[in-house]
Amino acid sequence: MAYLIDIIIFQAAILIAVYCISTVLPLDFRFPGWSYTQCGVELPDQLAKRIDAGWPLRSGEVRINQICEVSQIGSEKQRYLQTGVSRQTDNGTSGQWLTIPVDADDNPVIGPVFVYSRVISGIVNIAFLAFAFAYFSANGRRTIGKKLLGLRVQSVDGKSPGFGTEFRREILKFSPYLFFIAAAFAFSLFPVFPTEDFDALLRMSRDGYTLLNNGAATFNIILGIAALIWWFLPFIFWRGQTFYDRICACKVVKS
């Protein structure tokens, strides 16, 4: 609970600072998870006809076309085409989907997806959070969340850890998230689609082609399970230490 209180406070402060900076400097801040998506923009007639020709409907199928706009603090809107079909089966509704970025003229953009700005923003965000947590936990200080719940971080010998130890502890705390960012960057270096021909890709989607994103999704599930183990398993057998506490010879105590 103390962590949730602190993460809300520190992340809100960072986002406010980023918003103020972005109104002055033309920087591209794209913090993962802090975005707003709005779908429903109608497709141009030419693109809709192209989709109908490349992915004709079969009996019982319903076409769904839309363009989604993703807004993030300090960043220009990103636009994505979502096209697919849905059908009723004995087990409910099923569907096939194809999601592709589009340019300002709503033309599909196919190729490798690079996420340099998101990687940099994600790392900077974690660095700021780790610094804030470390500063307000080192040398006998406490974060607001820990004050409210009467908690304190101290070394196993009963002393107050310095800033260096606390910063290392916080980096280790966020290490699953940093690994997730690195994995996302690694996946972005490879083409998501097997062809840059949009019409050919439509035909493949019609025939049941599964995007490589499924492999990324499986990896994300595995990483998510590992992160849950890293963050929450120690609380099941709570003795005042998480895994990163043990590495840094620290513990959380009531005070």
UniProtKB/TrEMBL annotation:
Localization per record: Membrane
This protein's UniProt keywords: Membrane, Transmembrane, Transmembrane helix
Record membrane topology: Multi-pass membrane protein
TM ranges: 7-27, 115-138, 177-195, 215-237
Protein name, UniProt field: RDD family protein
RDD domain mapped to chain residues: 118-187
Annotated Pfam families: RDD
InterPro entries according to UniProt: RDD
